[in-house]
Amino acid sequence: MSFDAHVFAHPHEQVVFCHDRASGLRAIIGLHSTALGPGLGGTRFHPYASEADALADVLALSQGMAYKNALAGLDLGGGKAVIIGDPTTDKTEALLRAYGRFVETLGGRYFTACDVGTFSPDMDVIARETSYVTGRTVEHGGAGDSSVLTAFGVYQGMRASAQHTWGDTSLAGRTVGISGVGKVGRHLVQHLVDEDARVVVTDVSRGALDAITTAHPQVRVVDSTEALVAEPLDVYAPCALGHALSDDVVGTLSARIVCGGANNQLAHDGTAKLLTEKGITYAPDYCVNAGGVIQVADELDPSGFSFERAKARATGIFDTTLAVLERAAAEGVTTAEAADRQAEQRMRDVGRLKNIHLGR
């Protein structure tokens, strides 16, 4: 499929290709929808094998952000950006500032934030060229590490899934397997350990695993995701990159609940049905991992960022998740379909208000 065909096959408002030869910047910004407001979504810095792979990722991620922001009750649309390269070797001040200038050209249609490969100090650098930045450091009035409330939201979604599945929100004594204990996974481990859950983890980074076992000696480590999903789990939490739920993984899983922080967990459109057929409660990823975007969106409040206000809003992920799971059961659809319907309904109902002229 050609680039043009690939872009126009998706219902996106705008896709911007950014190139600055001097700094080496190659980036793509995708805006899926601004029906509810400007698009908000992070910037992923990743060594994609090709521009086609980067494009596919930004299209999927920006659509996910539109639904995530809608379901979270935010007056924000869906956008995302990817920078092609290795963040450990290619990230420079010049490259980040060049990227910031491209964000500025969109005139506020897109607000950027952190994602895989980018961090709050990077947002401070980008902010030297554009004001359309969230997820900045606390020293610069920002929300800081958004993975704190991302993990908190996943934890709330996990409690709601437990209520739906077992009739009790408690995870004490349950075995939870976490794949990926970096930004989000490490905070999720803390919540679960505090509740006396039994936690099993894996990660491709030895350093990330060492940090977990140093802080929580009771946490057990296995050497691969394949080994983790084969464990006798109650809950499986994918917290690394997307497409974690393949047919093979679903076929192997013993867990009754899947609830994790990774984006775009379903390998294909039929995966949600496979999970349902196997009796596994799938908490849609963009529903439960919205805590991070709730956190950085709070920076846009005229009064300035308040962690307490953002955390209170992220607590609502429990109710949102439970509503999605109950809607799926009531309407006889997968939980992924139920979440989509709920997000689309809000985009329609609230987005249409833009047609009411305010005379400004």
UniProtKB/TrEMBL annotation:
| Gene3D superfamilies membership | Leucine Dehydrogenase, chain A, domain 1, NAD(P)-binding Rossmann-like Domain
Q: What is this protein called?
A: Glu/Leu/Phe/Val dehydrogenase dimerization domain-containing protein
Q: Which SMART domains match?
A: ELFV_dehydrog (SM00839)
Q: Where is the Glutamate/phenylalanine/leucine/valine/L-tryptophan dehydrogenase C-terminal domain?
A: 144-355
- Source organism of this protein record: Aeromicrobium alkaliterrae
Which InterPro entries does the UniProt entry name for this protein? Aminoacid_DH-like_N_sf, Glu/Leu/Phe/Val/Trp_DH, Glu/Leu/Phe/Val/Trp_DH_C, Glu/Leu/Phe/Val/Trp_DH_dimer, Glu/Leu/Phe/Val_DH_AS, Glu/Phe/Leu/Val/Trp_DH_bac/arc, NAD(P)-bd_dom_sf
Q: Which residues form the signal peptide?
A: none
The alphabetized UniProt keywords are: NAD, Oxidoreductase
Which family does the record claim for this protein? Belongs to the Glu/Leu/Phe/Val dehydrogenases family.
Which CDD domains does the entry link to? NAD_bind_Leu_Phe_Val_DH (cd01075)
